[in-house]
Amino acid sequence: MAFTRDRTPLLHVALDEGEGAPVVMLHGIASSSVTFQNVVPLVSPHHRCIAIDLLGFGESPIPPDAEYTIAEHTAAIERTLKTIHLHEPFTLVGHSMGALIAARLALRFPKQVSKLVLVSPPIYVKPEELSNLLDRGVMDFYLRAYKYLRANEAFTLRSAEFVEHLLPIPKAMDINERTWTPFVKSLEHSIESQTTISDLASVTAPIEMVYGSMDQFRSDGVLRIVERMSGVTTHRVLGSDHLIGKRLARVVATAIG
């Protein structure tokens, strides 16, 4: 159930620095605005950079009755952006699940979003909607894996703690007891159940899609669909994975402009 207007939470604005045309940055699931630590120094000399912690993550609130659907995530960002008082169109950057949310925002506010930059977007469809057998197998694997993670809390928390220590960006993945409910509900209601393909088909702003050749969560079958959409420019970065490392960050900064 989507929030009513008077119950929509305000999110934590983790970063607001730089001058120039605004760039709004949305991180992914079980993360925070540290996601963009390699991007901001490249962009802030020419842009006003605004990074927002998503509902349930970072320093944003965790409403007990939230279902963490795309609609709820979007509503919370909409309310938060109104408090920032942007007076000109902005570039909207979304990483991972943040890219799915960004696509919905760009659809809802075509006059405000001047460019949409999707970074490592986990855009999925039902396996049977893909014609290639390998693509269907990959999609089915992802969806089964996500269901397993949601159903096995102890395993997922232990694995997340181990992986977190290996990541080059501290706290880039922050799955713990505090964020468990936002994580599992966002996974189920915003990633596993998504309409991003249809959202993107109706977005009027130019779309830049940036992803690494070693992205662990990409679906090549779906990416090929997005690449063929009107207004989409694709940047495949060799040697980069799902996180925005320094190499990927340089391409993201170029895509922002």
Mean pLDDT equals 95
Shape estimate: globular
Characterize the largest beta sheet: strand count, sense, and whether it forms a barrel: 7 strands, mixed
Q: Please trace the helix and strand order, writing H or E for each element.
A: EEHEHEHEHHHHEHEH
Number of strands: 7
**Residue fraction in strands:** 15-25%
CATH superfamily: Alpha/Beta hydrolase fold, catalytic domain
Number of domains: 1
- What is the name of the CATH topology? Rossmann fold
What percent of residues adopt helix (DSSP H or I)? 25-40%
Please give the CATH architecture. Answer: 3-Layer(aba) Sandwich
For the termini, the CA-CA separation is 37 Å
Poorly predicted runs are none
The tally of helices reads 9
Strand order of the largest sheet: 1-3-2-4-5-6-7
Computed structural class = alpha/beta
